[in-house]
Amino acid sequence: SSGINAEWPLRPGGNDWSAKQKAGSVFKLGFTVNYNEHGPGVDFSTLEITLCWLDGSGCSTCNVLDTECTGAFIAAEAADETTRTGTIQIMPSQCYSKMPNITLSFSDVIFSGITVPADFSSDCAGDSCVVSSERGLEVNEELQFNVGFPAGVMVLGVVFEGEDLCDVQPELFEEPTLAPTLQPEPTEEVLPTEESEFPNGCARYEIDSTWPNGWKAFLHIPIEKDTVRWRIDAEFNKPVQAADWWAGLPEVWSPTRSSVTILGKDWSARQAAGTVFHTGFTANHAEGDNVYIKNMRLKLCWAEGGKCTVCDIVKEACSSGLTLSSTATGESNKMDGVISKTITRCENDMSPITLEFDRPLKRLIVPRGRYVAECSERVCVVSTARPMRVKTGDELRIKTTAVFHHEKGALVGLKYGSEDICHEK
After folding, report:
1. Cα–Cα dist 64/53, whole Å
2. Which of 1, 95, 260, 334 is 20 to 30 A from residue 36's alpha carbon, by CA?
3. Pick from 119, 120, 118, 124: which is nearest to 149 by CA?
C-alpha cells in the first residue's frame, strides 16, 4: 500500500502467479507514476509492503521508505557483519527517582534481543524493545547509553515519556535562577494584637539575677484548665553542677547533667483554671562557663478528661539555615535574613519551607512573583508561586523579612519539607 502526498492512497495486491514467492529469493517488481506536468511535485509519503506466510504464521509489514532515527539515536559503524551499535541520548526536562522506560522501535523483528549496559535491562517483542533501569535522572543530566542490535536493522523510533525523540536534538532545559533578585512582596497581614504576656503561647521564662557561676529564674505559666499534674523537661548547653526547682519533685538528671526532668509535687500539681502558676529555680555551674537553657518543654495534664497539652517555654534559636542581616530602617519589629539550603535531591518543585518563630508575627515578606508565604500566629510556610525544578547541588537562597507585631523575635524552627535545617552541623 502507498500514499502519494498523503492524498491518493493505493493498495495493489499480488495476483495469482506473483502472490507465491519462494523463501530465500528476491522478488522484484516495479511501477510507473504519471502526474500533471504543471501541477505540484508528487512523491510518496508512505510505501509499505505486507507479506503473508504460507505456513499460516501470520503476516509482516515493513515501510520501504523507513529512515533511521536521528537526534535521540547516534549510529556507529557496524561492529561486524552480524551486529550494529549506536548511542541513545536523552536530556530530561524534569527529575525522576527511577528512569522511565524507553521504547525503541526497529525496522524488523528483533529475534535475539538487544545488548545494553549492565545497569540497564531490555525486553523485546516483535520489532520493539523496552529499555529500563533503576537509576534516577536529574534535570539536564544527559542520559547516554550504547545499544547493540542485528545488522541490517534500523532504529526507527525512540520514545521517552510518550514522546518520540527521533529528529529531536537534546537541549538543556532552561532553569530559573535561584538567586533572590526579585523585589519582596508582603503576605496578607495578620490582624494586629496586643502585646501578650506570653508571646510564645506557652509560658514566660524570666532571668531574675545572675552570678559568676549561676543564675536565678522565674517561670510564669498561664493555666487554661484545672490541672492534675505537670512536667518540665529542660536541656542545657553545658553541664549544671547543682539546681533547685522550687515546686518540682523529683528532679531526674541525665548522666552528663545537661538535661533534667521535673515533675509537679502533690501540692503544686493541681493548679486552678484562669490563674498563673508562678515558680522558678536556681542553677549553678562551673565558674567561667557560659551556660544557658537550650530547650525547655512544658506538659500540662487536665483534671477533666485526662488529656494533656505540650508546648515549648524555651526553644533554641536556629544556628543554621538562616543568615540574619541588619534592617536598613532600623525598625525594632523587623528581622531581615536569607534562607540558605543546598539541595540534596532532585525535585520537580521546591519543597515547602516552614519557619517557626518564638512570638507571633504580622507577615513574612518574600521575593515577589517567585515565592508565596502563608502565616498563622508564629508559623509561616514558604512555597513557590509556580513549580520550580531544583536539582542536586543547587544553592537555594530566599530573602525574607519577618514583621512582628511588637518587638522582633527569634527563628526557632526551620524545615525544608520534612528535613530539619535549623541546627544542621
Report:
1. 19
2. 1
3. 124
* The pLDDT of residue 5 is above 60: no
Cα–Cα distance measured from residue 203 to residue 296, given in angstroms and rounded to the nearest whole number: 10
Strand order in the sheet with 184-185: 184-185, 361-367, 395-404, 334-342, 322-325
Q: What is the DSSP letter of 216?
A: E
How many other CB atoms sit within 10 Å of the CB of residue 48?
14
What confidence score (pLDDT) does residue 191 get? 45
**What is the reported pLDDT for 73?**
87
Determine the Cα angle at 280 with ends 279 and 284, to 5°.
Answer: 165
Phi, psi (deg, nearest 5) at residue 329: -80, -15
How far apart are the two ends of the chain, measured CA to CA in Å? 70
Residue 173 clears pLDDT 50, i.e. is over it: no
| Euclidean distance between CA atoms 16 and 21, whole angstroms | 11
Contact assessment for residue 198 and residue 204, using Cβ atoms and an 8 Å cutoff: yes
Cell of residue 260, nine digits? 533534667
The per-residue DSSP string of 60-81 comes to: EEEETT-----BSEEE---SSS
Question: What H or E segment, with its residue span, contains residue 2?
Answer: strand 2-4
- The rounded Cα 332 to chain-centroid distance in angstroms is 36
Q: Choose among 206, 226, 224: nearest CA to 215.
A: 206
Q: Which tens digit of pLDDT belongs to each residue from 297-324?
A: 999 999 988 799 999 898 888 887 777 7
The pLDDT-based confidence of 179 (bands split at 50, 70, 90) is very low
Q: Answer whether residue 183 shows pLDDT above 50.
A: no
The burial class, CB within 10 Å (0-12 / 13-18 / 19+), for 235 is middle
Query: To 5 degrees, how large is the angle CA 357–CA 363–CA 367?
Result: 105
Contact 236, 259 (CB under 8 A): yes
* Length in residues, the chain: 425
How far apart are the C-alpha atoms of 419 and 70, rounded to whole Å?
43
